[in-house]
TrEMBL record:
The keyword Nucleotide-binding does not apply. InterPro entries: NAD(P)-bd_dom, NAD(P)-bd_dom_sf, UXS-like. Its main location: cytoplasm. The lineage of its organism: Eukaryota, Viridiplantae, Streptophyta, Embryophyta, Tracheophyta. It is found in: Cytoplasm. Keywords: Cytoplasm, Decarboxylase, Lyase, NAD. Its EC number is 4.1.1.35. This is UDP-glucuronate decarboxylase. It comes from Cannabis sativa. GO terms for biological process: D-xylose metabolic process; UDP-D-xylose biosynthetic process. GO terms for molecular function: NAD+ binding; UDP-glucuronate decarboxylase activity.
Length: 336
């Protein structure tokens, strides 16, 4: 005979959790640039407990020093390419080097981080029933043939180039997210992040804003990679974190572009940095790297409509905020 099980009675533990509405949140890559700013914002909410998992490849404990020892915070040295067992309600999955010099340094490791790392975090989300957000990238659009880029564009990506470990890796990560969603009903969120800048960027990580600011502070020439007419759109990190949290908390899976639509050539960026930070430095032209996208600018219609989000900080206002942090870390005071 068929016996029907009575519905499970709510466990007292779960009930207590429900009333407090506490959230346990995992941030992979939380010791990095964007991750540590995200942790700062999440920790401001007293109902959040935050667990950071990081292998310190490009991140540092220093970025999280104000939280170490805090009762609602935990930091675990762990590589996401290995199985992880924790019990959480949400996962912000950021772990992956973002700067070209670091992701090209060990490309096989980069693709493992993107593919196996994302698979593991999805397996974890499936086991514990957590919602998971992936920080994908505008690089999924490759060297775009559509301008500006909206989320329907499938991209123009070289599958065998030196950037492929990163951009094809993120494309597979997005595919995995959607397959776990369709096949296993996992709650997913995908952010396509465009170039982001702000305090705590690695000083020597080779990205253009950190390079130019470090060069201007040190009084060295600003190195514009040829031709200098290539464009990017730069989002200040506090705006980025705000967009990521809205995406996580909202009802849309994405992918959704999160970025600042203000578009600048690299020559214009160099001129702005020179004007704002050190009018005495020279601007020089140097050789570029292969497969450098010629233009990039997000269409953020979807983020505006679905998340009520748009960036607030203009480039000219964000650059000086980053300068202060770079001067402190480089030990170079402003001359007046
Ligand atoms: P970051 O390099 O500062 O941070 C990445 C963090 O991940 C670091 O702390 C690093 O140690 C950690 N990490 C790397 N591999 C790991 C692994 N295998 N296991 C555990 N931890 C690992 O970079 P970021 O700028 O903060 O970028 C964060 C995320 O946002 C990345 O997923 C990146 O692809 C994405 N993104 C960033 C930008 C940008 O402009 N910064 C643009 C597009 C997408
Ligand atoms: N996984 C993990 N933590 C968990 C559950 C799974 O790291 O709490 C990893 C697990 O090691 C596996 C991956 O996630 O390699 C995918 O898990 P899933 O259960 O989807 O697939 P399966 O284990 O059946 O291959
Ligand atoms: N770039 C530059 N000078 C530098 C570093 C980078 O002109 O010192 C250029 C680079 O050629 C590219 C743009 O800045 O066109 C953005 O490069 P970055 O590595 O910051 O990010 P991504 O290429 O991933 O957008």
């Amino acid at each position: 005979s068929v016996t029907t099980k009575p519905p499970p009675s709510p466990s007292p533990l779960r009930n207590a959790k429900f009333f407090q509405a506490n959230m346990r949140i995992l941030v992979t890559g939380g010791a990095g640039f964007i991750g540590s700013h995200l942790v700062d914002r999440l920790m401001e909410n007293e109902k959040n407990e935050v667990i950071v998992v990081d292998n310190y490849f490009t991140g540092s404990k220093d970025n999280l020093k104000k939280w170490i020892g805090h009762p609602r915070f935990e930091l675990i040295r762990h590589d996401v390419t290995e199985t992880l067992l924790v019990e959480v309600d949400q996962i912000y999955h950021l772990a992956c080097p973002a700067s070209p010099i670091f992701y090209k340094y060990n490309p096989v490791k980069t693709i493992k981080t993107n593919v196996i790392g994302t698979l593991n975090m999805l397996g974890l989300a499936k086991r514990v029933g957590a919602r998971i957000l992936l920080t994908s990238t505008s690089e999924v659009y490759g060297d775009p043939l559509m301008h500006p880029q909206d989320e329907t564009y499938w991209g123009n990506v070289n599958p065998i180039g030196v950037r492929s470990c990163y951009d094809e890796g993120k494309r597979v990560a997005e595919t995995l997210m959607y397959d776990y969603h369709r096949q296993h009903g996992i709650e997913i969120r995908i952010a396509r992040i465009f170039n982001t800048y702000g305090p705590r960027m690695n000083i020597d990580d080779g990205r253009v804003v950190s390079n130019f600011i470090a060069q201007a502070v040190r009084g060295e020439p600003l190195t514009v990679q040829a031709p200098g007419t290539q464009t990017r759109s730069f989002c200040y990190v506090s705006d980025m974190v705000d967009g990521l949290i809205r995406l996580m908390e909202g009802d849309n899976t994405g992918p959704i572009n999160i970025g600042n639509p203000g578009e600048f050539t690299m020559l214009e960026l160099a001129e702005t940095v020179k004007e704002l930070i050190n009018p005495d430095v020279e601007i020089i032209s140097v050789e570029n790297t292969p497969d450098d996208p010629r233009q990039r600018k997000p269409d953020i219609t979807k983020a505006k409509e679905l998340l009520g989000w748009e960036p607030k900080i203009k480039l000219r206002d964000g650059l000086p905020l980053m300068e202060d942090d770079f001067r402190t870390r480089l030990g170079v005071t402003r001359k007046n």
